[in-house]
Design goal:
The complex is a heterodimer. By secondary structure, chain A is mainly beta. Chain A has no helices and 11 strands. Helix content of chain A is about 0%, strand content about 55%. Chain A starts with a strand and ends with a strand. By secondary structure, chain B is an all-beta fold. Helices cover about 0% and strands about 50% of the residues of chain B. In chain B, strands 2, 4, 5, 6, 9, 10 and 11 form a 7-stranded mixed beta sheet that branches. In chain B, strand 4 and strand 5 form a beta hairpin. Classes of the chains: A mainly beta, B mainly beta. Chains A and B meet through strand 5 and strand 9 of A and strand 5, strand 9 and strand 10 of B.
Chain lengths: ~110, ~110
């Protein structure tokens, strides 16, 4: 069964700094998803990574996938307060339609 | 606009009552899901359905029931057997098949009084 582990679980950082959130998964997977959740809100799809070496960028966020290392990263460049949220990664379960979510990384960006 | 709707946005329940949460999608997706999220926690899968008239238990199905009579609808009933139902409930949908991207509704916040 697929397990998805994110780290760190909590991250407090200053505006203008760079940081990376890591997502490790336990079994072979050719795709990985990143979601954003604002406090009290639902999940919003950020990135869909569909192959080894895939890289996607949206503003100050960049996600990548290394299927051989079973690792995805979400890199934040020059953080701004608006990026404060909880970020989840998720990968497909082995045989069913469902996907498995990591525990989430709660990101707080202070001025 | 295609999307997923959930109603109500907020729901209050007295102990011992059953309540039903609505989830409707017009994305023409075959698969639908219900998740529970407790404060500061991740998502836990309650039930999912890959096709009409079929559904499977997730990780925390006890005290919940679902039906899937129509492709676009997947209501969740929180029964009195669910001892601690206060939580944020999220419905999602996807195309059928192994692990496709899921799209989420806005959620229902259930509080037991």
């Amino acid at each position: 069964e697929l397990k998805v582990e994110q780290n760190p679980l909590f991250l407090s950082m200053q505006e203008g700094k760079n940081y990376t959130i890591y997502c490790n998964y336990s079994t072979t997977s050719d795709r990985l998803y990143w979601y954003r959740q604002d406090p009290g809100k639902s999940l919003e799809s950020l990135f869909v990574l569909l192959s080894n070496g895939a890289v996607k960028q949206e503003g100050r966020l960049m996600a990548s996938l290394d299927t051989k290392a079973r690792l995805s990263t979400l890199h934040i460049t020059a953080a701004v307060h608006d990026l404060s949220a909880t970020y989840f990664c998720a990968g497909p379960y082995s045989s069913a339609s469902k996907i498995i979510f990591g525990s989430g990384t709660r990101l707080s960006i202070r001025p | 606009d295609g999307g997923i709707t959930q109603s109500p946005k907020y729901l209050f329940r007295k102990e011992g009552q059953n309540v039903t949460l609505s989830c409707e999608q017009n994305l023409n997706h075959d698969a639908m899901y219900w998740y529970r999220q407790d404060p500061g926690q991740g998502l836990r899968l309650i039930y999912y359905s890959q096709i009409v008239n079929d559904f499977q238990k997730g990780d925390i199905a006890e005290g919940y029931s679902v039906s899937r009579e129509k492709k676009e609808s997947f209501p969740l009933t929180v029964t009195s057997a669910q001892k601690n139902p206060t939580a944020f409930y999220l419905c999602a949908s996807s195309v059928q098949g192994s692990g496709h991207e899921q799209f989420f509704g806005p959620g229902t916040r259930l509080t037991v009084l």
